[in-house]
Amino acid sequence: MILMGISIALIGALGYALGAAIQQREAVSAGATLKLVRRPRWWIGGVIGFTGASLHALALSIAPLVVVQPVSVATLVFAVPLAAWLHGRRPHRAEIIGSVAVAAGLLGLMLLVPAHNVTPVLSNRAAIGLIATVGAIVAVTFLIARWLRGPFKALLMAIGAGSVTATVSTFVRVVGGGLGGDLTRLLTWFTLAIPVLLVCAVVLLQKSYAVGYFGIAYAGVQVVDPITSVTAGAVLLGESLPTGAENVIPALAAATVLIAGTITLGRMAPDHTQAVPEAATGAIPEAGPGAVEATRLRPVVRAD
Question: What is the pTM of this model?
Answer without folding.
Answer: 0.66
